[in-house]
Structure formats: structure tokens, C-alpha cells
Design brief:
seven-stranded mixed β-sheet
Length: about 775
Amino acid sequence: MNGKIFYDLYYFCFSISCLALLFLAKLPTTQISSILLGILIFIVIFNLFFNNKIIIVGGILLCGFLWSTQNGLDYLATVEPYIDKKITILAIVKSIKITQDNSPDSRDHYYVNFEIKEINQKLIDQRLTISLLWNNNIIPAAGERWQLKVKTKVTHSNLNQGGFDSQRFNIANRSLLVGTIDDATQIESTKNVRQQLVDKTLLYVNLFDYGDLMLALAFGERSRLTFEHKNVMYQTGIAHLMAISGMHIILVVFLVNRLIKSVQFLLPIKLIFYWFPLLSAFTIAAFYAWLVGLNPPVMRAILALFIWLVLRFYKKSLNSWQVINRIIAILLFFDPLMILSESFWLSCYAVICLIFIAQWLPTLKKTCVKQSYLWQLLKLQCLLTFLLLPIQFFIFNGISSVAIIANLIAIPIISLITFPFILIMMIMSFFDCSYLAIWFAIMADLSLNGIFYLLEKLSGYWLYISSQYYLFSYIGWLIFIFYRVGIWRRNKILFLLVIVFMLSPVIKQRAEQWQIDMLDVGHGLAIVIRKGSSAILYDTGAKWQNGSAAEQIILPFIRWHNLSIEGIIISHEHNDHIGGLTTIKMHYPDAWVMSSSTKLNNDYLCKSGNTFYWRDLMLLILWPNELSESTLNAQSCVVKISDGKNTILLTGDLEKKQEQQLILHHKELLFSTILQIPHHGSNTSSHYAFLAKVNPKISIGSISRYNPWKLPAKKVLNRYNELKLDYYLTSYFGQVSILFYPDKLVVNTMRREIKSRWYHDWFGALPN
């Protein structure tokens, strides 16, 4: 190998070594890090004398591992001392103000981001941000200084298969710390330039129906997006266009560069400088990046653009692969934690796909004269869509079936019309050119109106993909490579064998006979009982103003495992148990319903003594004795599920009096292998006599970490400990899955067996 190839290998090895952050269950201890550092020093000394390139590769791998893991340790060390504390901070507002004081919107609770400068009147030397739940009528504006007395918490994710991992997201964005405000005092009311421009732009944006989208494109502020607009963008696969990212930064660079080059035609030769358009474009793009809040995708784009300019300035003769290789390595050097960011992977993967297409399918260039631009764009979009399938399935668990058409419509219009008009509107509004600002705002609004008129016709065609089909998502790469190298013609058998391998997870038979999954839904309950591809639900979690556990947790889990819900059992009618019923029924209208409420449209009645069989499992109803018009904790539907060997006792929010009634009337039937801890571990339930009669091998409880009732109660946990009953709480373990085999049962939890990762740790104080 020559020197250049080795340099590329060095950059690549550094990037590869940072991948450890994705898979490590625990970050290395100080002792292990010290040993590895000693080995690294030895490698450096060794190469001073022998200069062995293979040893250098090993040293770079070790260096990258230490650098990335130490960044993770440093960030956690910065945050952890302030978790679950009451502190006084002096902080600068980072979030832009987009509503007026005392407006209807301002009364809703929402989070405001602050950059902390002092904690308990002591300066901090690390950069630390905190998101605070704001409920004051005085809305803070970007750049203001506030003194705040806060009670801190930490982002604690509901961990479930197929669900969104907020802990990983917040660590990637260094935003773990959140909190609530006890007292707030404004110290300095000076707004920064960003807020001043937002204030002027809002005067025009607020006049239009698509003002929420214009605000998102102008400043990257997506909190005002309406549910209808977000749903259309998600269903058609164009949501990426409304999040300020590398594409928008490149557009700014392109527009400014072209504008300055056009102006140079009017200047004398002595005033024309080769680097002036590029440097000016980069400077303005950097300012715009700051204006939109320097979110991680934008920071990556600016840094990547800077690296590209440096390489071009020094006239480095590098191909596309070498450039992207070095850019990725340098980005990870500046912030290794970005490797946890899904947007980082999506950006890098998309660029790699474009380079791959450009080099492996040169026919696109050769035929561009003969074929129309639209046809070329269609071919490129189709290729890109198929190559992006793996990352789409991994991040979004599906893909829009109309994404190709939607992007062909939206990308040119937003890139060439909407976004430039919004930029000009921002400039005109800043200089108080009202007529021009309103005219460009009208044009931007009309373009968005046209786009969404067409997109609304295409929405509703989202395809959800289960984890079994993930390997098959590489079919685009397979066809592309086999076609390009000619294997398709020479060896069709090999192609078919690879297809069969991709589909092997689909046809694989599972070893367990059946399984239950207690989902981590926060304060609420949702248990999936499944056998093969069929499932029934015991409770459906809570519903809140803008969503539900059914939408965000249960349905993604069901789709991830390619299950079909055949039945729903509702324990009682409290929101945290029945909230998602309407949503589940909307997606599975044929699913039967069982409850003890006369108000629900029941297919089966939950009444003591009733027996029901489902997929060779027997469901025996133990409580209540009578149906009720309104079912509360006392009327919780208690079901015992049995396969003839193992049994599960599902109790809902059963309380002490009902536990005593069960002992009185069903003493011999209470013994069970698995117990769902009643009433989320409240002290009103789980009394000694009841626990002694059930005597479960394993107890599982659905608990929210930060709940106002401080559940589970310490007294209850003491009872389980005194009786030596093993228990698992979703607040600590995440999703709890119990698999039943012919000769054993196995417990798997998200934080341990299923996906044990350092970024899934319980940060802050451990549960008592």
C-alpha cells in the first residue's frame, strides 16, 4: 500500500473505533482506560523507532476507542451531579420566542432550552444545557438571562422494541438534563439578533395558513407545526425537507455563491477574487446556521463544508470517497457522541448512496443529454429510495409507498422556490421592507399551498415493516451490485440464494411456545400476550392531549414483531388503562373486547367464573363478581391465563379489599407463576396474605419513574423482598418479556438482555 491509501485507512479506522459507543453495555472504568492508555503510549513509543504501519492502525483504533468513550464518560460526569437536585442557576435562553406574552398558546406547558452559566452561584467550566418545563405567562426570548430555582430530572426513556429511544437521542444531542421551575427572575432582557429577526419575521408569517411551515423552514422551529401538516409530511416521506439540515445549508451556499459570481461580472478584473464567492457563501451559511439554532445536523453540515473548503484551498487531490471518509472522521473527532444520532447516520448514508450511484452508474451522466431532466431525476430518486431502504426501515420502521412521487414534487419546489423566497422574506423583514417582505411571504405560502394540495392526495400510504424483513431491505443494494458487475446474468442461483438468506428471519420458527410482554408505557398498563403472530392486549395504556401510548408504544411494538391483535381485555376505565382502546380498535376493528363495564361494546364479559379459550391458552376470570356501569380500581378485571403448566395472574389496579375477596372465594386458584403487580405498586395493594397465596416466581410491575404518587411504595417493595419474590419494574428494566418454553421460562428485559447499552442506564439516583 502507498502512503495515501494508509492515510485513508487511518481516518477510516478512527471512525470505526467510535462505533463502540453504539454497542457497549458499559463504558470502560478508569482502571481499564488507564491500562488501554498505557498500551497506546507503548505503541506510540514503539513506532518512533520502527514506524510499522500495521501497528499504527492498531494505535489509531485504540486511540479512537479511548477518545470516544472518554467523551461519553465526561458528558455523564458533567450531568450526573445535577440530576434529581434542587439548584439555583443563572442561564441564557437558547429557545426562540414564537408567541406573545399572555397569548393562548403561551398558557400551554412546553419546554424552554437554557445554557447554564452558573449553578448555586458558582461558574461552571463545561457547556451544559437544560430543558425546563415553562408555565409562566412571561415567555422567555433567546438571549435573555434568567435566574431560576429548578428541580432537575433526567430524560428517562420508555424503552420498548420498535419504539423511539429518547435516552439515546438526548445523549447524542447532549440534552439529558430537564427540570421544572420553582421560581424565575429575569436578570437581563436583551434579546439576541436571532430573536430580533424572529420577532420581525413573525409579523408576516403569522398572517398565513402555512406560517407554521414557513417558520420551520426559516428558523428550524417545528413546535408550531400543526398535526395535519406533520401527518401529511410523515405519510408522504418529505418530513426531512422541513427540518433545517445539510441540504438547506448547501442551498444557502449555492444561492449566495451564484449571486456574488453574478455581481462579479459587473466589476473590474482587479476586484475579482477567486475565493471571495466561496468564502462569502460559507460565512453567510455559518451565520444562517447560528440563526436556526445550530442543531446537530446543521453543525455537521457547516463543519463538513469547512473541511471541504480547507481541502480545496490546499488543493488536495482527493476523490469523493476520500473526502467523505475524512469528513466523517473529523466530525467524530470533534463530537464522538454524534455517532448515536440517527440524523448523523441518515445524512452520511444518503451521501454515500449518492457517491455510489455516481460512480457505479455512470450511464446517468452519459445519457443526460439524450434524456429529459425529469426522467433523470426520476431514475436518481428511484435508485436513492431503494438504496436508502435499510436506514429507512431501521429508523422509521417503514417507508412511504409514494415517497418517490412526493419527493419529486416537493424537493424542486421547496429548494428552488419556497426556501429562497423565505430567505428573501427574512432579509426584507429585518430591514423593514414591508411590501417586499409580504410579497415574498405570499409567494412562499402559495408554493406550500400547491405542494400540500398535491401531497394530501398522496398521504395515507405508509408501509410499516416488521423487524423480520430488515435483511430484505438490502434488496436494492443486491440488485444494484449484481446488475452492475454482471452476476445476475452469470450466476442466477447465487442471487436466489442471497434472497432466501434475506428472507430467512421470516420463515424461521420460534422456539418458545408463547410469550408475554409488559410494555414500558410510563404510568399505565399494557401487556401483550402472544402466540405465533397472534396477540391479545391486556389494557391499552394512557391517552393524552396530543397522542397516546397506543400510537407511540403499543402499535410500533406490534408492527415491529409483525403481530395481529385478535383481542383486547380492559381491566377498568381509568385513562391509564383504557386510553388507547379507540386507537387500537381503529387499527384492528375485528379484535374482540372483554371488560366488566356495561358501557363498553363487549364481545365477552369479564365476570367471575367465566372461562375463555384462546390459541390453546385458558383464560379464567376471577374478579369482579358483577358487571358495573362505571369500572374503577375495585372492579378491575382479574384474569388468570394458563397453558396447563405456567400461569399468569393479571390484576389491573386491584386493591386490598378485592385481594381479600379473592383469597376468600378463590384461595386455591390464586397460585401463579407470574404476577402482574397490582395498582403499579401502590400501598393500597399487594398485601402479605395475597402475595403469600399467589406465591409467584416472578412479579412484573408497570411503573413510571417520575410519577407524582412516588410509586412503587417502599412498603410494597419491602413486602416482596421479605417474601423473597423476584420482581421486575418497567421504570428500571424497560420492556419486560417472559418467554415460555416446554421445559423453562426466560425473562428478557430491554435494559439488560434485549438491548443492554451504556446509554440505557438508569442515570441519577437508583430506585429504592
